[in-house]
Amino acid sequence: MVLLDGKFISEKIKEEIKIEVQNIKNRGGRTPHLAAVLVGNDGASLTYVGSKVRSCEKVGFESTLIHLDENISEDNLISEINKLNDNDQIDGYIVQLPLPKHINEEKILMMVNPKKDVDGFHPFNFGKMAQNMDSFIPATPQGIIELIDRYDIDTEGKNTVVIGRSNIVGRPISILMSNKSKPGNSTVTLVHSRTPDIPSFTKKADIIIVALGIPNFLKSDMIKQGSVVIDVGITRVADKTKNKGYRIVGDVDFESVKTKVSYITPVPGGVGPMTIAMLLKNTLKARINN
Fold it and tell me: Choosing from 5, 117, 119, 206, which is the catalytic residue?
């Protein structure tokens, strides 16, 4: 069993980005600049955005946090987004999800300039990705592909099962894994919460990517010997033995599964760090494209 160490690989990628940023500066170019829009004070979102800002500093990016009141009107939020669209000093930006219930997420994401959409959520970028064209790819699926690539895991002709159909992870990674590319060229089955008898699919899978949001969902008896398991899930579970009062749990029952797999991502330290690294990579790409 080999651990797919997302923390280690993400640090390598950050070092590569840092060198590219220094090269841009040495040529007299402008430093890449990433902005983040955070509405409200959701604890997980605050932690995630804080991590992004620290990562920007590490690679030499400029970063801006636009922290808005959770009661902001939809029109005022759109006004803030338009300012970012019009700001030539901002290469890319993200709108941290989830947004408050009174704001239409779809409407807000449609307002993002596709050329600055480093999250890869805009339909313009999603459509280009689906056609295997150059685009901004959502950071988590891109991070999974990068992790598979860096560990040289063979995907061609393999049977891949993706559990979960979200637009952020499940759908895009199913497209990327079936693309005529490397990694890619696998035969993909997408299952979800309404799929009867999910184990009948996962037991035949060479590669399983779980993004369902249910802690410890994938058990040892649901996989075959030697499979590759990538866990995208991240849930806070109450645990009084921990200083923070909780522990982070993935969608895979790691302890039972680890003895049967050839490769597996830990949680935390697997896909999560790769997501932030890919966001930085997309921002660098946006800067180069500008």
Answer: 119
Among the listed residues 52, 158, 281, 285, the single catalytic one is 52
Q: Would you call 219 a catalytic residue per the annotation?
A: no
Q: Is 248 exposed, middle or buried (0-12, 13-18, 19+ CB in 10 A)?
A: middle
User: Which residue stretches of 117-179 are H helix?
Assistant: 123-130, 139-150, 170-178
Q: pLDDT by residue for the chain (290 residues), tens digit each?
A: 999 999 999 999 999 999 999 999 999 999 999 999 999 998 778 888 888 889 999 999 999 999 999 999 999 999 999 999 999 999 999 999 999 999 999 999 999 999 999 999 999 999 999 999 999 999 999 999 999 999 999 999 999 999 999 999 999 999 999 999 999 999 999 999 999 999 999 999 999 999 999 999 999 999 999 999 999 999 888 888 888 888 889 999 999 999 999 999 999 999 999 999 999 999 999 999 98
Task: Give the whole-angstrom CA distance, residue 3 versus residue 7.
Answer: 11
Q: How many CB atoms lie within 10 A of CB 126?
A: 21
pTM of the model: 0.94
Considering the candidates 96, 117, 206, 281, report the single residue annotated as catalytic: 96
Which domain does 253 fall in, by range? 139-272
Task: Answer for the pair 116, 84: CB distance below 8 angstroms, yes or no.
Answer: yes
Q: Is residue 45 part of a domain?
A: yes
Count other C-beta atoms under 10 Å from residue 128's C-beta: 17
Please say if 58 is a catalytic residue: no
> Would you call 96 a catalytic residue per the annotation?
yes
The CATH number assigned to the domain holding 103 equals 3.40.50.10860
Q: Let me know: does 23 contact 17? Beta carbons within 8 Å.
A: no
The total number of structural domains in the chain stands at 2
